[in-house]
Structure prediction request, 254 residues.
Amino acid sequence: MERSFEELVAEAEAVSVAGWDFSWLDGRATEQRPSWGYQRLMGERLARASAALDIQTGGGEVLAGAGALPPLMVATESWPPNVARATALLHPLGAVVVADEDEPPLPFGDAAFDLVTSRHPVTVWWAEIARVLRPGGVYLSQQVGPSSVFELVEYFLGSQPEEVRRARHPEDARRDAEAAGLEVVALRHETLRTEFFDIGAVVYFLRKVVWMVPGFTVEQYRERLRELDRRIRREGAFVAHTTRFLIEARKPVV
Prediction:
């Protein structure tokens, strides 16, 4: 029996959005993955590192699945539910989780790490990354690119100005990394297909990825959600496109 709009929305409102695990969306949404395989690349770098830092680790799921950790492994996270989740997941693996406000300075000394990683950081403090890297050390990050999932964003917020659509451009990341004294050794960008198969998936996604539609609540957008529900039932899915870029930057050896 087909579930109603109200049932799907109520379920998506009730489920926890702690951590960075999207398995609740299995069968309800799909997102094409970048060809480079960030977690695999991360694991390769971790295997060669002696001291590493994972910034904005979320619930620690990506780091925990990356393979063997170096002798010194630290992760930072700002959101208290994620700090608790990451601590429970990463401590048994030998990683220390530090609660950090994601504002400069990072709570570590100069040249503390030979590897710094971050998957989908909200903010990137390039000068701080350069400071905590040892000479020859590497920063590896997969980041959300410009206009990611904007078909969904603009459905709720309307057409966005060009400066908003261009935000998080990979060439801006290159510029900022180089300004901090880092050498960009790799920069790749891809546009990927995302599909939402029911309105519950949309509600869950917007509750979890809070910067997409800031201040999103079901009550505020109920009528737009209801219209989107009808569209998904008619067309089978709501299609959007995510953008991702991979950046690897090295601190020069003086």
About this structure: The CA atoms of residues 35 and 130 lie 27 Å apart. The chain has ten helices and eight strands. The chain has a mean pLDDT of 96.
